[in-house]
Each structure stands twice: as C-alpha cells, then as structure tokens.
Amino acid sequence: MQISSALRSLSSRVLILGLLVAALSTASFGQFRVAITFGPPAIPVYEQPVCPGDGYMWVPGYWYWDDDAADYYWVPGTWVLAPEVGYLWTPGWWGWGDNAFLWHEGWWGPEVGFYGGINYGFGYFGVGFGGGRWEDGHFFYNRAVLNVNESIVHNVYNTRIENVSENRVSFNGGHGGIEARPTPQEEAAANGRHVGPVSSQMQHIQEARSNPQLRASANGGRPPIAATERAGDFKGNVVAAREAGAPYHPPNRGGTAGGTAVHPKELPPLERPTANSGNAKADQKYQKQQDKLAQQQNKERQKLQQQQDREHKQLAQRQASPKETQSVEQKHQQQTQQMQQRQQQQQQHLQSRLPAPTEQRK
What we know:
By secondary structure, the protein is an alpha+beta fold. It contains 7 helices and 17 strands.
C-alpha cells in the first residue's frame, strides 16, 4: 500500500515515528516520506554476533529516523527467527525522491527483493543474499559470510563471495547515493507474497529509538551497540562498531541561541573554506568556485527571506489568527531548514574537489 502521497503534505513534526510503527504493524509495505533533505550516515564497520541457533536469520543494522529528536538513529543488526520456513529478509533502505528521503520498509518473503543496492554486509552486499539458503525445510548457513558456531548449528557450507564492494553509502539516489535500480526479478519479488517485520523486530526498533547513544548526533556514525545476538536484547551479547563507515557531518540545525532557525536571516554565515595546496593555479580556480557558490547561496537566502517577509506582511494585514500564524511559521522553518541542508550539501560537494596538497620539495 502506497501512503507517501497521503503523508506528503505533513510537516516533519507531524510525521512522528509512532505513525510509522502503526503503519508497519498493519503490514503496509510502502514508502514513508520524511521531510529531511540530508542522508543518513554510512553503514558502520562492526562484527557479527554468533548465531544463537538453528532457524535464526540475520537482519542487518540500518539507520532509521526519529522525528521527535530530528535525528537518525542506529537500529542494531540482530538475529531473528524467520516467520515462515523458506522466508528470507529483504532489508529496508533509504532513497531520494520528491525532494526528500524516502524510507522503503523491509519485508520477509520467499525471494530477496531490491534493497537499494546498499552494502549492509554479512551476505547483503547490494544484490540478493549470499549468507545462506533454504533446503528441504532447513536453512543452511554460509560460514564464509555468517558467524555460526558449528557445534550448535550443523547446517553449514562454505562459499566465498567474490567482488564485494567496500562502499558503505547508506542511501540510494540523490547526491552521493548509490546508483542502482531494481531488476525485473526483484520487482517480481516485491509484488509477490511477503509479510512485514515481526513483533520482535518492532520491539527492537523501539528499544533502539529509546537509547540516546544510538542517535547519529551522539555517536557520529559509530554506534556503541552496532549488533545484538537477539532482537530487543541490548544488555546481553552486544557488539560495538569498530569505526564509522565514513566521516559524518550532519547539517547545522540551528542558527540562533534559542534553537533551530526559522528564517534565513537567523542562519549562521556561509562558510568559505580556503585552499592552500601549494598549487597556485588550482587554488585560484577553487577559490573562484567558492566565491561563485557563496554568491549564489546568498542570493537564494535573500530571495527566500523576501518571500517570507511578504507572507508576514500579508498575515499582519489580514490580522491572521495565532493558529494561522503558527502554521505559516512552521512552513517557514521547514523551508529554511531544507535550504540550509541543500546548501551544506553543495558545500560538501565542492569541498570534495579541494585541491590536494602538493608534496613539498626539499
């Protein structure tokens, strides 16, 4: 069931995680629009806990969104009993669409479908699943991929997976995202028989959401609990991330001492990094690009501020009610945040082209 069109008009403060959980509990496998324009951190580097027993399936960790905290948080990878014999897990994934990030919920089914081309690791390397297979009503684990104790689980084999990408980008599409599209087979799997996350997975999500240390703003993309042996058990055999998948630089959320900026005039000044690579020509070219971007972004801020000033004037002329005024201010805040996030992405893209320092000659 597609619900993105119904949610599109809601602000980010209305689209709370509780709505997502309620929707998931009815097994709707749609796209959930979140009014944010910056992607989640990269997939962290971590070890897999040992499989607790026969029939448990690996559900890789992923970044989810908490609208109340306005932050991504890590849902640790964990082992979950399959809801039916023959079922495999297709992970959820973030994708860019309609000028915002969409969360595509994961599901259980006879075949693994499309999961954005994201390399979640442990058999989920972007396409399909290389961690095991069902045979005669039993799941056989690939020891080359999954952490299985053969004294506990005897259905094992060993097949090495070649040409595994090291890319840890956690979203599809948009600037810097994975460029992958579903195959006809993956689309057929999504349209076939499948069920949503089981109750233990939903409890696992809630447990992760309630842990402030799992928020990206707190752990910088390196969660202290990256994986657990069993869903919902965050005090037993847990594994910390060894390192972040990539440096995480979330957008600056606030421009005023009181909190989040509502209008462009409240945003902090634009940063303009300078180049000092030792290559005068390359540095000069980079500086021109910085000046051009700064000029463009300042014009964008001025244009949005002028538009919002006109709306303020119209509210005053109409003697608008406090409720209407508050609604307009919420819209202004969202516009300002989206513009700020977009500009910071542009700046990050330009900084990625910063000239590398030349080696000093002796």
